[in-house]
Specification:
With 274 residues, the chain is mainly alpha-helical. The chain has ten helices and two strands, in the order αααααββααααα. Helices cover 73% and strands 4% of the residues. The longest helix has 26 residues.
Length: 274
């Protein structure tokens, strides 16, 4: 029964992660930590194993989602590679930070991090995108309705942000989309659907680096990973399909509500130990 729960968890996490551009780790990591209190097979799971296993799953979720979004032509290749030039090194730094962290401080930090992200999303309508400059990256996206949206960013701003996102990815095992998607929407003016799809490609690339580091450190439980993988692959495809049918504002609202609930629960568990 517990193995079935892991399969369903992989499907659910990848589906929501793909819909919102998170990668699913923001669901898998806290779920593994929470289930550790009630499950015999997950009993005593450490933050390092939860993060390492999650990042391995993110490779398959990211690849599955990216392939689906490529068919929809919603991935900005150039931007994904520019962001990866920052998130890749950041992911390796995050893995280094993760090595000695204990369970309760990890849960509290993770919970605070998630609540901050949700707060940023709440304020996004009151924050104007950074002004685009001629020497920056300026892009045009045509929606399915035929509307033209202009967006863009400065590399000198985008790459450090991506480095910080990558650090959070390696530290918390979340893929990084929970920060990168809001940054792309709020600061750079990305259309939400395009931000989600581009984020998934960046997550795929960053997860390869960070998961390889966690594997080298022995932080991956291969049995958990095998149970999570089938759901992660099909969930990534399903999430991309659902994303295409949702209104942009619906995607943001779902992300905001979901993050608040998870963040508060993690902080409570870290403080009380239950």
């Amino acid at each position: 029964m517990e193995w079935l729960v892991l399969v369903v968890l992989g499907l659910f996490a990848a589906m929501l992660g793909s819909v919102m551009g998170l990668g699913g780790g923001i669901i898998i990591v806290p779920a593994l930590m929470l289930l550790g209190n009630y499950s015999t097979i997950l009993n005593g799971i450490t933050p390092q194993v939860a993060v390492g296993t999650s990042l391995l799953i993110m490779i398959f979720t990211g690849l599955s989602s990216t392939l689906a979004y490529l068919k929809q032509k919603t991935v900005d290749f150039k931007s994904a590679l520019i962001f990866f030039s920052g998130s890749g090194p950041g992911a390796l730094f995050g893995v280094w930070l993760n090595k000695g962290i204990q369970t309760d401080p990890f849960l509290i930090l993770f919970g605070i991090f998630i609540v901050i992200v949700s707060f940023i999303l709440m304020m996004r309508k009151h924050i104007k995108p950074l002004r685009r400059r001629p020497n920056g990256v300026n892009r045009i996206y045509i929606t399915q309705q035929g509307n033209t949206i202009e967006y863009g960013y400065q590399r000198i701003i985008a790459i450090p942000i991506a480095f910080f996102v990558g650090t959070c990815s390696g530290l918390f095992g979340i893929g990084g989309g929970s920060l990168m998607v809001p940054a792309m929407i709020i600061l750079f003016g990305f259309p939400p659907h395009l931000a989600v799809a581009t984020s998934m490609m960046m997550i795929f690339l960053s997860s390869i680096l960070s998961s390889a580091s966690h594997i080298a450190l022995g932080n991956v439980d291969w049995l958990y990973a095998l149970a999570l993988l089938p759901g992660a692959w099909f969930g990534g495809q399903l999430g991309a399909l659902i994303n295409r049918k949702l209104a942009s504002e619906t995607v943001v609202n779902l992300l905001r509500i979901f993050l608040v609930i998870i963040g508060i629960r993690l902080i409570y568990q870290g403080i009380t130990g239950s």
